[in-house]
UniProtKB/TrEMBL annotation:
One of its GO terms (biological process) is carbohydrate metabolic process. Its EC number is 2.3.3.16. InterPro entries: Citrate_synth-like_lrg_a-sub (IPR016142), Citrate_synth-like_sm_a-sub (IPR016143), Citrate_synthase (IPR002020), Citrate_synthase_sf (IPR036969). One of its GO terms (molecular function) is citrate synthase activity. It is an enzyme of class 2 (transferase). One of its GO terms (cellular component) is cytosol. This is citrate synthase (unknown stereospecificity). Gene3D superfamilies: Citrate Synthase, domain 1, Cytochrome P450-Terp, domain 2. It comes from Elstera litoralis. Residues 242-268 are annotated as: Disordered. Keywords: Transferase. Belongs to the citrate synthase family.
Length: 268
């Protein structure tokens, strides 16, 4: 190998994939040994974590991914995918349009929730409820949104209790520690005390517990949510392509937005 070739081959370095003619290995595993042997959830874990999960770990991760698949056309990402398809673009572009709006406000709450939980654990010193109460009080005083709690559509998000029950079962089986579930519940209780009403945990708060309990760092919460929601985006984009329609906007034909500018006027 010449020095220039060595320099070129060292330009990108990865522990994820090794490939040469006739051979593809992911994290050391030959692709032909993985095909038909592991499922897609296990493959996600392998790619992100470097090794294969236990069946119990894969089951818990899969539950979180199933829970976030879709929330209907009232969700901006889904609505955007459907509108994009009526503009005559390809399904890949419609999916990309949807994914591109999954940011801090729509799609990022899980990442924010896990970071918040972890900050509470770091300061808890054995008293999680007190640490949660202090963290919630500080966040509210600063006007900071506490991600993972409350839902604009569901009084109680039906996905969250089931996900937490699965975490409890996994903790009882020794698959996870259950500490982040304890933190999340302490945050929920602290919010209720501070607000005077219950603000239930939502799917973002619950999936953040699962991702964190399984050892995923907070920034990956958003990516994992996007993987999950992309399934719903794909389904809606394809369905819209079958229904047809051209240039469908956010409002039905004949409906108008509210204009709040100057009344009609003419130049002097």
């Amino acid at each position: 190998m010449t020095p220039d070739q060595e320099k070129a081959e060292n330009w990108w370095q990865t522990e994820i994939i090794e490939m040469e003619p006739g051979s593809i290995r992911f994290r050391g595993y030959a692709i032909q040994d993985l095909i038909g042997t592991i499922g897609f959830v296990e493959m996600i874990w392998l790619m992100l974590r470097g090794d294969l999960p236990t069946p119990a770990q894969a089951e818990l991760l899969g539950a979180a991914l199933v829970a976030g698949v879709d929330h209907g056309p009232q969700a901006p990402s889904i609505a955007i995918a459907r509108m994009a398809m009526t503009c005559g673009i390809g399904i890949n572009s419609a999916m990309a349009s949807a994914v591109n709006v999954l940011g801090d406000v729509h799609g990022g709450a899980g990442e924010q929730a896990l970071a918040f939980y972890e900050s509470i654990l770091a300061r808890a010193e054995g008293d999680i409820p007190a640490a949660a109460k202090a963290a919630v009080a500080e966040a509210l005083a600063a006007g900071t949104q506490i991600g993972g709690f409350g839902h604009r559509f569901h009084p109680i998000d039906p996905r969250a209790p089931k996900l937490l029950a699965l975490v409890d079962a996994a903790a009882a089986a020794g698959t996870v520690s259950g500490r982040l579930a304890t933190v999340a519940r302490a945050v929920e209780a602290a919010l209720e005390d501070a607000k005077g009403r219950k603000i239930p945990m939502n799917i973002d708060g619950a999936t953040a517990v699962i991702f964190g309990e399984l050892g995923f760092p907070a920034p990956l919460c958003r990516g994992l949510f996007i993987l999950s929601r992309s399934v719903g985006v794909l389904a809606h984009a394809f369905e819209q392509s079958q229904q047809g329609g051209r240039n469908k906007g956010p409002l039905p034909k004949g409906w108008r937005w509210t204009y709040t500018g100057n009344p009609q006027r003419t130049p002097e």
